[in-house]
Amino acid sequence: MSTPPEIPVYRETRLRSVIKAISWRCVGTLDTFCVSFVVLTFTGVTDGNRVQALQLSSGIAGVEVMTKIVLFYLHERAWMRVSLGRKRL
């Protein structure tokens, strides 16, 4: 009878959490930029001025990316302390 293969046990490092936060924010910021641009353009807020809509959307996305990287990192690290849904090997 053969023994089952060992399953490696990994833990999340702080560096991995930072890299995940940054990569996720790239996706999220692109989404925020696109949604902001569409809303600003088609609601008439910028009176059809697409350059102004691009500038405002960029500003919104720029502020949002910084705050949400920090929030995601803190959220990720907090979840490392929660045992809900984990099984001890």
Q: In terms of per-residue confidence, which ranges show pLDDT below 50 for 5 or more consecutive residues?
A: none
Order of helical and strand elements: HH
Number of extended strands: 0
Give the overall shape: elongated
Number of domains: 1
Number of helices, counting only DSSP H or I runs of 4 residues or more = 2
What separation lies between the terminal Cα atoms?
A: 22 Å
Query: How large, in whole angstroms, is the Cα Rg?
Result: 20 Å
Query: Please, what is the average pLDDT?
Result: 86
Largest sheet: none
Proportion of helical residues:
55-70%
Structure classification: mainly alpha
Q: What fraction of the residues are assigned to beta strands by DSSP?
A: under 5%
Oligomer: single chain
Describe this structure in words.
- This protein is an all-alpha fold and 89 residues long.
- It has one domain.
- Helix content is 67%, strand content 0%.
- The chain is built from two helices and no strands.
- It has helices spanning 14-42, 50-80.
- The two termini are 22 Å apart.
- 6% of the residues are buried.
Give the SSE layout:
Blueprint: H1 14-42, H2 50-80
Helix pairs in contact: 1-2
Briefly say what this structure is:
By secondary structure, this protein is an all-alpha fold.
List keywords for this structure.
2 helices, 0% strand
